[in-house]
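stage 2 :: seqdesign
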């Protein structure tokens, strides 16, 4: 699914590590037996290696990539303390941002429209639009004090955050003008070659706003 932030996280991680891969779309709502055999949870992403190894869940996949391909760029910091901070932020964006923002906006405005054909919950949408401001403020707080969110270098924490933000930005629901420091951080992420293919994603019948793919938005 193009607007799965967890699949987007893995896509960026694979490209950061310069690993070749073939992207396949999965309609998880169909609950295909073949897919459930790979991941009984029925969720994306799922990584299938050439040797037949199957790894499900974005956290498991991205940590696997760092361990299985140590000769490529590291996605997590070297020291135990820095890795702990990166993992804390990954969980923050995967879970807290995902629950408070992405689910309320992408889930209500797109998933309900295309999958269950039901009316979106306006209270959930209002909550998502308010919650995103808090998260942008936190991104601004971190980026003002560090070169990247978890420290001196780009890590999985930035990838996890940007994957969530990009899904909401596809809807045009990120108030960038109110959060210039968060905007500057996201502009740097958008400019990375690993991230640019996400900006070419396009859902038929639901185009993104003009600024979505603009690196100088």
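stage 2 :: out
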């Amino acid at each position: 699914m193009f607007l799965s932030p967890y699949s987007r996280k893995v896509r960026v991680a694979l490209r950061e590590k310069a690993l070749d891969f073939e992207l396949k779309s999965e309609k998880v709502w169909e609950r295909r037996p073949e897919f459930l055999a790979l991941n009984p949870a029925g969720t994306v992403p799922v990584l299938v290696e050439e040797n037949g190894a199957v790894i499900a869940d974005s956290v498991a996949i991205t940590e696997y990539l760092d361990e299985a391909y140590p000769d490529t760029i590291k996605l997590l910091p070297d020291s135990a303390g820095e890795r702990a901070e990166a993992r804390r932020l990954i969980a923050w964006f995967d879970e807290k941002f995902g629950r408070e923002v992405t689910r309320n906006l992408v889930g209500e405005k797109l998933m309900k429209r295309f999958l269950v054909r039901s009316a979106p919950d306006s209270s959930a949408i209002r909550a998502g639009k308010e919650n995103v401001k808090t998260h942008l403020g936190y991104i601004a707080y971190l980026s003002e004090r560090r070169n990247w969110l978890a420290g001196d270098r780009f890590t999985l924490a930035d990838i996890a955050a940007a994957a969530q933000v990009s899904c909401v930005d596809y809807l045009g629901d990120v108030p960038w003008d109110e959060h210039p420091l968060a905007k500057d951080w996201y502009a740097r992420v958008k400019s990375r070659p690993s991230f640019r293919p996400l900006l070419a994603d396009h859902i038929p019948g639901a185009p993104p706003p003009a600024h979505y793919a603009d690196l100088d938005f």
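stage 3 :: structure notes
- Residues 93 and 203 are 23 Å apart (CA to CA).
- The chain is about 55% helix and 5% strand.
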